[in-house]
Every structure is written in C-alpha cells, then in structure tokens.
Amino acid sequence: MANYLAAKMGLNSLARKQNKSFNVRICTMESDMEFSCEMKWKGKDLLELVCRTLGLRETWFFGLRYNVKDTVAWLKMDKKVLDQDVPKEEPITLHFLAKFYPENVEEELVQDITQHLFFLQYGEYNPNVHKPGFLAEEELLPKRVINLYQMTAEMWEERIAACYVEHRGRTREEAEMEYLKIAQDLDMYGVNYFLIRNKKGTELLLGVDALGLHIYEPDNRLTPKCSFPWNEIRNISYSDKEFTIKPLDKKANVFKFNSSRLRVNKLILQLCVGNHDLFMRRRRVDSLEVQQMKAQAREERARKQVERQLLNQEKQRREEAERVRDELERQLVRLQDEARVANEALLRSEQTADLLAEKAQIAEEEAKLLAQKAAEAEAETKRIKATAMRGHEERRLMEHKMLEADRMALKMAEQSQRRAKEAEQLRQDLLEARQSEHRAKHKLLEITSRVYTYPSLLVDCVPPELSFSKENLSFDFKDTDMKRLSMEIEKEKVEYMEKSKHLQEQLNELKTEIESLKLKERQTPLDVLHDHNAEQGASKHSNFKKLTLQSSKSRVAFFEEL
Question: Model confidence over 121-145: pLDDT tens digits?
C-alpha cells in the first residue's frame, strides 16, 4: 500500500510539473470569462489580463475576490495565484468586483468604467416601444422596499415611468454618473464592516472605506461613534488577532483592537493599505499614466460631445422631416377625401342631368300632342260652323257643340302652354345640371393634379443628406463650425448641471410624496435610524466632519472607553 501511495504521489507531482498552465473563470456582473494562465502568474498578471480584456485602465479600483471557508478573500497582486488559498478545482472561480471606491466619482472616474458595472436595459425612452405595462415583469425594487409602502406595482411603475419619460435625452454616461453620485452619498457606500473588540472587550464594528476607519455600534451601521481619516494614521499592523493603529499625532496613544480570526485580519490589513494608498494618491500630483488617461478622456469626451451635437442636429432634422412628411400625408388623405366627395357629386350630377333630359323629352312630346289635339279641335269647330246653316235645330245643337269645342280648345291651349312652360323649366334645369357637372369635373381635375404633386413635395422637403433609414446615421466633420459647437458644448455643461440639480429636487419631492404611504410597522431598525438622521439633518459627510473636529487623542480615548 505504501508503495502504491508513493507511486501515485510521484505521478501527481510529475503531472503538475508537466502542466504549464491552469484555467480560471472570471465572473463579472454581465458575463463570465475563462482564461488559460501560466503557472508562474501572479495576481497582478491575471488582473491586468482581465482589465485589458474589458478595456479598463483604472485597474486600481478593482480586484479578484474568491470564497474561502466561511468568509471571502481578495487575490494578492504580488503573490502567485496558485500559492494563495484559491479554490483548487479548475477552472478556479474568481469574481471581478470593485474593491475600492472613489471619494468623488465625478472627479475621480477618468475613464467610463461604469459601463462594465451597470447594464442599462431599456436605453432612451421611446413611446412606440415603452408602452404602459412594459415594466410589469421587471423586479425594479427589492421586495422589502415594495412592502414598506402602501403602493401597488402599478403605482411604482407609473412613478418610475414618469421619471423615465422626463429624463429622455440623457446620455448613458450621464445616467450612470447620476446613479453613482446618488450612491456615493449613501451612509453604507463603499464600507466594509468587520466585528472587533476594544481593550474592554466591547463588541464593535470596524468600517473601512475611502475616507478612513470608522467605529460603529453593532446595531447601527449608519452612524459611526468615531472616525479616523487616513491622513491621521501613520501605521497599521497586526500580530495574531491584535491590530495596532498608530496615529500621526504623536501625543495620541496607540490604540488597539482584536479581531476574531487571522484570515479576517489579513483582509482588514489589505483593505486598509489599499484605501490608504488611494487616499494619498488623490492628494499627490497625478502620475504620467494618469495624466495621459485624463488627456485621452478629455479628448474622448470632446469627441463624444461633438458627435452628440451632430447626432442631435441630425435627429432634429429627421424629426422635422418626419413632421413635414406626416403633415403632407395628412393633407394627401384630406385631398383624397375631397376628391372622393367631388367624384360622388359629379356622379350624382350626371344622374340628375340624365333624368332631367328624359323628363324634358317627355314634356316636349306631350306638348306636341296637345298642340295637335288643339289643332284638330279648331278644325272641328270650323267644320261645325260650316254646317251650322243647315238648320235651326242643328244650329242650336251646333252652338252647344261649338261652346263645348271652344271650352275644349281653351283647355287644350292652357295645357299646351303649361307643358311648354314645364319643358322650358326642364331645359333650364338641364342647363344648370350640365354646368354643375362641368364644375365637378374641373374640381376633380384640380384635386387630382394636387395629389400627384405631393409625392414630389415630400421628397423635396427632406434634406439631400438625410435618409429615413434608421441605419443611416453618419457625420461629416469637414463643414462643422467648431466654434459654434464649442459654445454648444459649454451650454450643454450648464444644462447638465441644471438637470442634475433638478434631478435631486425631483428625488426629494418623490420622497416627500410617498412618505405618507410608508407603513411604519414594517420598518427595519436601519430604516428607523435613517429616518431619525434625516429628521436631524445629519448626513454621511456632516457626521464625518463633526466627528473629526476633535483631536486624535480624544477620539482614541473615546474608542477605548466604549
């Protein structure tokens, strides 16, 4: 058995020597990546590869974190990866995360690194895409926050969507920067908490962040009891489980605290050293690398601003062209309706004219018939008069017949005159109908000619360089008035500051509006503490300023007496 184990161990050792690489999986907030690494690589080699792959140059904010037993640890930069307590199973899983946080994101973030940390899913508001209910399936807020207020999901969506609509036109970079500016003012922003004990054995929390070291009571992570800025700390060290902090003020006593585990002490020291280095770096003249990065960032921002100005101009021209197109299309539809109505009127005029012509012809024929009957009656009268001489009786009879014939002739004459008048009126109506038909045809021809001219107008109204294709967005810098663009860029900066101020006012209004809907009985202890601080007008920065007004000596003494 001993020989077997020895042989197996020898084979494993040989396999490790022959294997010249190992595999790692890097988990980011957006995706996972896998790399093949050389056995000799240190932590900084792997981090540089990850940052280079992501296109990041501000590597000092980031680190590679891994899980070890019941805590977490950060990969050391100056030590080989495989010599650390990383998981042994390949691929070795590491998490790419922000390890250190800037004091002021607007001043310190030279490169647009936030695009790798936040994914803006919806882009700019578009009423044709973002219709009511488009947020219904999204988990926009933690359930704890939703349950804290008497507001339905629809009410939350309505408020979020209204804010989303109002901030249409902001760039991705502006939106991300506003998000970070809000985040950096939160009490727990960038703070790593560790359970410690002072000399008296009192359980406390140590908070490590970009500003310094903070001491909290275990049930209050928002308001520190005392704070020590990095510029007041001369040295930090630990031995076994005891930490020693040496203030810069030599009159102040060295103060110590204990941590429960050695592994946690290593993590505390690592975070302290890194935060202190960044604190001092911010207060020194920028290195050549940072100066180059800032220059490149300025050039990139200027280029993006010019592109954005051109894009906005292009967008305005497109919107104006689309507005003109829509107006012309509306006019075209209106003219087509008028043409349809005119065509229907012409058809009715033609039908009326045909009917009147038929009636006029019938009236003329009846008039001719009546005239013929009148002539026959007159001939009969003459014939009767000629025979009247034949006798008295016959004469009386003939007189009677003559009277009847006269009455008949008179009646026939009247009917003939009436029919003649009717025929004349029908001829007049027919003439008017023909004139109406002529006017309707003229109107139809006029409308038709106008309809055919609108397609050309639609083309003429669009600038020659503009296409309605969504893919055609190109910029020509040759004819750009750079002076005008510079003025517009300065104007845009002022507008951005105004927008930022307006956004803060909106957030305050929203807080005030929904405060009455808060369910007090569902608040957590931290919620109650936050509300209390807000009522007192206390903030993260005001508390820090207040706590650091006292001398280091008095603060050390206060810590030891907690």
Answer: 666 667 777 777 777 667 777 788 8
Give buried/exposed letters for 506-543 (b at 16+ CB in 10 A, else e).
Answer: eeeeeeeebeeebeeeeeeeeeebbeebeeeeeebeeb
Three-class DSSP category at 93:
strand
Full DSSP string of 240-287: TTEEEEEESSTTSPPEEEEES-HHHHHHHHHHHHHHHHHHHHHTSPPP
**Contact between 140 and 161 (Cβ < 8 Å):** no
- The span from the first CA to the last CA of the chain, in angstroms, equals 60
Q: Judge contact between 53 and 33, C-beta under 8 A.
A: yes
**pLDDT tens, position by position, 9-61:** 444 444 444 568 899 999 988 789 999 999 999 999 999 999 999 888 888 89
Beta carbons of 61 and 98 less than 8 angstroms apart? yes
CA-based nearest residue to 416, from 488, 459, 368: 368
- Which residue type does 503 have? L
Alpha carbon distances (Å) from 288 to 12, 181, 197, 291, 293 = 47, 27, 43, 5, 9
Phi-psi region of 184 (alpha: psi -120 to 50; beta: other; left: phi over 0): alpha
Distance CA(189)–CA(180), nearest Å, equals 10
Bond into 218 cis (ω within 30): no
H or E element: which one contains 543? Answer: helix 540-547
Q: What gap in Å lies between CA 22 and CA 56, rounded to an integer?
A: 24
- Indicate the pTM of the whole model: 0.65
CA angle in degrees (0–180, nearest 5) for 487-491-493: 120
Count CB-CB contacts under 10 A for residue 549: 8
Is residue 84 within 8 A of residue 75, CB to CB? The reply is yes
- Spell out where 164-218 has E strands: 192-197, 203-208, 212-216
Report pLDDT digits (tens) over 162-205: 777 777 767 777 778 888 888 888 899 999 999 999 888 899 99
Structure tokens at 150: 């008497």
- Which residue reads 């190992």 in tokens? 22
Q: What is the DSSP string of 480-528?
A: --HHHHHHHHHHHHHHHHHHHHHHHHHHHHHHHHHHTTB-GGG--HHHH
C-beta pairs of 188-192 under 8 Å, 24+ apart in sequence: 188/221, 188/222, 189/101, 189/540, 190/100, 190/101, 191/221, 192/271
